[in-house]
């Protein structure tokens, strides 16, 4: 069984106290923002069922969201919207959302553990961890906050643009989503840079 606190324990052994886990949700969809979360968990936090958000049911993610918010020493959640994604590309927009999430913590962490292999410019030591959302408790917590927050946002957008089915697919490129794009064209929250290939093939 994976020890989800191994990376955090190593950081503390290295003299880091405030350890921030960071992850994002929504890099791949055709519509909506990318969302990032930053979470600092206390050393003695007990969160039953904590895991990579992609391995959890929607109901479990939403129940864990409330537990994480309650247990966290500090947390921040932030977006970069579709216009920013189109302007600076998805990677830089993801970094922008991560920077905003760290700012929303209201304090300066000593080190950031970031899911993936790309290092955002956060003005502090950063350790990237591939598959970090299933290896680090702090990153797993961040992945849940980001995923649930973005899902809720896309469900709200579904009431504004019901023809696309955002509540079901959350903006990802499903067969239903592409069929709606063919019939209705894009709406204001679509990422134009993500649709160039689709419309170029029509």
From TrEMBL:
One of its GO terms (molecular function) is RNA binding. InterPro entries: RNase_HII (IPR022898), RNase_HII/HIII (IPR001352), RNase_HII/HIII_dom (IPR024567), RNaseH-like_sf (IPR012337), RNaseH_sf (IPR036397). Its cofactor is Mn(2+); Mg(2+). It is found in: Cytoplasm. It is an enzyme of class 3 (hydrolase). It holds the Pfam family RNase_HII. GO terms for biological process: DNA replication, removal of RNA primer; mismatch repair. Residues 17-202 form the RNase H type-2 domain. A divalent metal cation binds at residues 23-24, 115. Manganese or magnesium. Binds 1 divalent metal ion per monomer in the absence of substrate. May bind a second metal ion after substrate binding. Its main location: cytoplasm. Its EC number is 3.1.26.4. It comes from the Bacteria. Keywords: Cytoplasm, Endonuclease, Hydrolase, Manganese, Metal-binding, Nuclease. GO terms for cellular component: cytoplasm; ribonuclease H2 complex. It catalyses: Endonucleolytic cleavage to 5'-phosphomonoester. Belongs to the RNase HII family. Endonuclease that specifically degrades the RNA of RNA-DNA hybrids. This is Ribonuclease HII.
């Amino acid at each position: 069984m994976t020890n989800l606190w191994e990376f955090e324990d190593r950081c503390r052994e290295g003299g880091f106290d405030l350890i921030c886990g960071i992850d994002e949700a929504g890099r791949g969809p055709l519509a909506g923002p990318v969302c990032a979360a930053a979470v600092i968990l206390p050393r003695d936090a007990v969160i039953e069922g904590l895991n990579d958000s992609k391995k959890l049911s929607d109901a479990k993610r939403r129940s864990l969201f409330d537990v994480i918010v309650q247990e966290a020493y500090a947390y921040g959640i932030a977006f970069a919207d579709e216009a920013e994604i189109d302007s600076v590309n998805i990677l830089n927009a993801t970094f922008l959302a991560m920077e905003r999430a760290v700012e929303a913590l209201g304090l300066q962490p000593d080190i950031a553990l970031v899911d993936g292999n790309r290092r955002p410019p956060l003005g502090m030591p950063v350790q990237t961890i591939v598959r970090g959302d299933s290896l680090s408790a702090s990153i797993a917590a961040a992945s849940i906050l980001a995923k649930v927050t973005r899902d809720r946002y896309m469900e709200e957008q579904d009431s504004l643009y019901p023809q696309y089915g955002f509540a079901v697919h959350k903006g990802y490129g499903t067969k239903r989503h592409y069929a709606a794009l063919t019939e209705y064209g894009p709406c204001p929250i679509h990422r134009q840079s993500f649709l160039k290939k689709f419309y170029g093939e029509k």
